[in-house]
Design a protein that fits this description.
254 residues, alpha/beta, Aminopeptidase, 5-stranded mixed β-sheet, 9 strands, elongated
Amino acid sequence: MDAILAHVTAQQPSIVRFRKDLVECESPSDNPAAVTGFMDLLAENCRGLATARTFPGGRYGRNLLLNFQLPGPRKKSPGRILGVGHGDTVWPVGTLKSMPWREDGGRLWGPGVLDMKAGLAFFISAMKVLQALDQPVSRQVALWVVSDEEVGSECSRPLTEKLALESAAVLVAEPGTGLTGKLKTARKGVGDYTVTVRGKAAHAGVDFTSGASAVVELARQIEKIAAFTNLKKGLTVNPGVIAGGTRTNVIAAE
């Protein structure tokens, strides 16, 4: 263990540089080309460490499976150890201009630095340590990186479930909770809903009483929808994207 700790300590600057490279490769979920570029960066950094295989991501970027080439005889019993993570983030391309990578006070800053490019960097760095120190590993180790986690894993979920069922154990490399880094043992699901309100268009000045505003009604419904939030039960409801109306002098029909 002392040899491993000494090696990791010596490698810390390169691990930080690796994380910097990942953070500066912006990869929002809704930009397939950017996410696929991030997956290519991961694969390139694992050259000589793992074999890389990509899987189509539907309307999102490609998914990536890394099978690590580690020392040691394998157990005859089936089942790999599977790491799971995601390459997409919630930050749009260009965020680096207002939130650049920086090191400050023993912390690292930048879009996606915690969720979850740190976890990916640590997992891959751990595999590099095992290989460099010739540490025997009795099972095959793989890392599955999806492209659509932040938007509900719509396309990657079937593949994730298949790979998990084929594995002896699954390790999720997501960050801990809060500044204390509490261990996560479960995650809640996510659902997306689209609510469409239809009213009646009319001129807001000369024919106001003939109209029925869809925007005003939606505003009423938003309060009711937001009230579904129940923090004690871990239920959060967020009316996140709102659009309506056509002109300022026209009562909104939708």
